[in-house]
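User: Hello, can you help with two protein structures?

Assistant: Certainly.
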Amino acid sequence: MISIPKDLHELPRFEDGWSFLYLEHCKIEQEAKAIASYDAEGKVCIPCASLSFLLLGPGSSISHEAVKNLSENGCLIGWCGEGSVRFYAHGYGETRKTTKLTKQAKLVSVGSLRLKVVRNMYQLRFKDPLPEDYTLEQLRGLEGQRMKKAYSTASSKTGVKWSGRVYKINDWSQADPVNRALSSANACLYGICHAAIISMGYSPGLGFIHTGKQLSFVYDIADLYKEEITIPIAFEAASLGLPNLERNVRLLCRDSFNKNNLLPRIVQDIEKVLSVEIPEEEYPDFDAEDAYPAGIWDPNLGHITGGVNFG
């Protein structure tokens, strides 16, 4: 479980400079120019300036002034389930800048660039380099074989019969235990992937493999970890035959996410898959990072300063 460290200098750091903190069962209030967390063990002061992403779990509450302090210091606030196995909502932080979102939009909008990102996503799932001349259809075929093997291996290890991925959203109880466990585990995985994507300033809706859904990019990133994390967890939970299957799956996911240090790992992998060079001469950068109060797009000049009456 991610929690307050004994020394706030030990806060984990994302490689691109983000630091994050998870809190639950506490009350958060303003403390001078910082915030303070109150729980059964006492009070801990948290400097806003050194924090970029605050995840609030079950049983937490935060005052209006504390939110203002965090916002003024560019700290993103997210509301999530226990151990970030769900992601419910978020506020604004330094990710209000659109640099990364603009890059994501370019990559997803240009076919040749999008294909490079898709290849990166598939490559992360295989140990050996993928052949350069493989088509997208061939890559999907390799992925299908990989997942088929993953289900077969998990079935053999646990003794849980596997007849294929079948579930009905409107008829949850009719699915067999392992399919219900898979759906529950994947929902937990989507939560932590959603948190990572939002924390970096990307859009969860601009997917590369998946498309047309508000969480398309979440599904893209979550697929990188299903073989390693959610499939083994689901089959293990189904093999135990314990009551309240879905709750046990959530607890197993929570512990696995913490053990595998998954949140910062997701951030690193997102940067890897999106590390596609965009030719500036073909796709100029229209993101007005330096403009105040906001840049204005121009088809010939790129971006120009906002807040000017051009009449």
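That covers the first. Now for the second protein you mentioned:
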Amino acid sequence: MHRPYFLLTGITALLSLAACRPDAPTTEQAPAITPKPAASTAPDIATPAPPTSTDTLHLPGNQVVALRPSSAAAFEHLAAAETLPQELDAETPEATWLAQAQGRVRRQDLDLLLTPARGPVVRLHSTPETEFKNDSASARYQYWGSLPAAHQWVVQAWYWESDGIVLVDQRTGAKLEVAGYPAASPDGRYVLTTSPGLGGGDQVNSLSLIRIDATGPHVLWQREPEAWAPERARWANPNRIILQRSRPDANGELPDPPRPEYVELTLPTTP
């Protein structure tokens, strides 16, 4: 049975470890959002009591990061720094977001054209609806917005039975396809993506860290937790993150409505 091509399910993550290089100057003017300073910018609320048992996230190189309790108030305090809408579906008009790209991203029939500061135009071609079918060649692309601090355009991609995002570097045109919702660090050096995929379906359940260097985006690591689903991430400073997550019920399903919990993690220093 033919299914709508904007169906949002999961994707198979195409991720690998990558080398990092120094950053380059910004080539697109950021919107009127002032990045938080390097010092902690969490709201003036009481620090949660230490957990009785520390949750952890295992990273490459035998690094273990503690996930400590946080709060909805701390998470919501950081909402103003986000530059993407919370959700995007195939029926959302592109016009508003394209207007903010100052002519560097435009639609030409079925093609989405992105013009980097250096290098050729990046062309993402969508399959006509009448030809969209169950094969690897079918795709539809819609401009979602920008992560100015990280020099990245964000494009939503839909396939026959999967979806993802494509990061396109505004300086070089380099592309990277990843799963989930992206959040850029205040200094623009990293993007963290959250993809909640527990509870059935094809969506990958993953948390991925992407390094942004002078050549474009590169995946540093991806983790697929088995006990919880990463819903959203917001950066409190260049290496501290407040993570919204959810846990499955006794049947292995994510609760509906969601019952989010909040944890804080500090990333190890990366050259």
